[in-house]
TrEMBL record:
GO terms for biological process: small GTPase-mediated signal transduction. SMART domains: RHO. This is EF hand associated. Transmembrane segments: none annotated.
């Protein structure tokens, strides 16, 4: 089947070749694979045997054909997803173990659900590949990409003062998309990263923003890099060399947990708590802001804050992601429960506040290997007894968690000096 270029968003002609071991021999499939730019592996969402064949047969076959560290992107396609139930949790372990798997899409040939999306992702995986630019295991930009972004920052910093003011941010936006930033969009950016005394984004804040965008929306980062002219592809040569040099293969995260060590540089912390527990103040303190700054930022709610932190003399990036819990029965998404660490906030002056934390912890994080901390907020107020089976201190003892950390609105993180 041939899809003409004029009906695709990327304006590229796409040839679809259907292969199965039941109809063609392995030699024929190998021949077709060698000509492919992207591979879609189809399984049935309700048949565990077909899911098992993805790892037992198809993915090993691709490595036999392309090599163990190949760069051909793979899309997992869950077919016969005719109902409303999502089954992607079954293949998430596959995506974590096999870095060549770009994404997973569930579809239905019967109802045509997500069929066009499959080919959109397949085209995007080839035209805008992520692996040369983004290390999925470490959840950070590759070193080559970081160097390119630093150069972009220096180009946009017209007055060479080490900061991007509003005008320079607008120039950056117009360079990428041809339209200026709105005042509201500039506010969102500046509330999420570290700025200087004049409210201008610093070099550290600029790099932190790229890391944040990459972690929460890889596609947006890839699009911005493409607009900036960053060349990618297996055979593409630039003045800095092949973009394939930017690829870095790292070990699985479960090995990091076993060996109690990692080379990752970007970590996501989920900030969970009932409404009005002081989450915004807590998050803004990461970028050196206090209560008044958090109140101003709260007028336009942006659930992320990122900054550099020093861990054992190494610079890491910590991304805080805010989650409002409206009731203890609230459901967290798989993306939220996949955070590297969780901070549960409760208001010591609200007797109902800790119940939210305790319920969510027991429901999603008890007996997992996700580090969790309990943070008592508004400690400058009079403390009341929490309406829970045990006190927060006893709860931490029972579940072998660190003692609750006390946080006051007056606490602010000292800003790091800029290079």
């Amino acid at each position: 089947v041939l899809i003409p270029a004029d009906v695709t968003p990327e304006n590229v002609t796409t040839s679809i070749v259907d292969c199965s071991l039941g109809n063609e021999g392995e030699a024929y499939i190998t021949s077709e694979l060698k000509q492919a730019n992207v591979v879609c592996i189809v399984y049935t969402v309700s048949d565990d045997n077909t899911i098992k064949r993805v790892t037992d047969k198809w993915l090993p076959l691709l490595r036999d054909v392309y090599g163990p560290e190949h760069e051909i992107p793979v899309i997992l396609v869950g077919n016969k997803s005719d109902g409303s139930t999502n089954h992607t949790d079954k293949v998430l372990p596959i995506m974590e173990r096999w870095p060549e798997v770009e994404t997973c899409v569930e579809c239905s040939a019967k109802t045509m659900k997500n069929v066009s999306e499959i080919f959109f992702y397949a085209q995007k995986a080839v035209v805008h590949p992520t692996r040369p630019l983004y290390d999925a295991d470490e959840k950070r930009l590759t070193d080559k990409t970081r160097k390119a972004l630093i150069r972009v920052f220096k180009i946009c910093d017209r007055d060479n003062d080490g900061y991007l003011n509003d005008a320079e941010l607008n120039e950056f936006q117009k360079l990428c998309f041809g339209i200026p930033l709105t005042s509201a969009a500039i506010e969102d950016i500046l509330s999420a990263v570290e700025t200087n005394a004049r409210g201008w984004i610093t070099y550290a804040g600029y790099m932190a923003y790229w890391n944040m965008t990459t972690l929460i929306n890889v596609s947006q980062t890839m699009e911005q890099l493409a607009y900036l002219g960053f060349a990618v592809g297996r055979s593409t040569q630039t003045r800095a060399g092949s973009s394939a040099d930017a690829i870095k293969i790292t070990r699985e995260r479960k090995i990091d947990l076993t060996e109690r060590g990692t080379t990752r540089r970007v970590f996501q912390c989920l900030v969970v708590g009932a409404k009005d527990t002081g989450k915004s103040v807590f998050m803004q303190s990461l970028v050196g802001r206090g209560l008044l700054d958090a109140t101003h930022a709260g007028r336009r709610h942006y659930p992320y804050v990122i900054n550099r932190v020093k861990v054992k003399e190494e610079i890491k990036y910590l991304l805080l992601r805010e989650v409002d819990v409206l009731s203890p029965q609230d459901v967290l998404s798989s993306a939220e429960t996949a955070a590297d660490v969780v901070a549960f906030l409760y208001d010591i002056s609200n007797p109902e506040s800790f119940a939210f934390c305790a319920t969510i912890y027991q429901k999603y994080f008890y007996r997992t290997r996700t580090p969790c901390v309990i943070i008592a907020t508004k400690v400058e107020r009079e403390e009341v007894e929490q309406r829970w089976e045990v006190s927060p201190e006893e709860f931490c003892r029972q579940f072998e968690l660190p003692r609750p950390i006390r946080f006051t609105n007056s606490q602010r993180r000292k800003k790091q000096s800029e290079p």
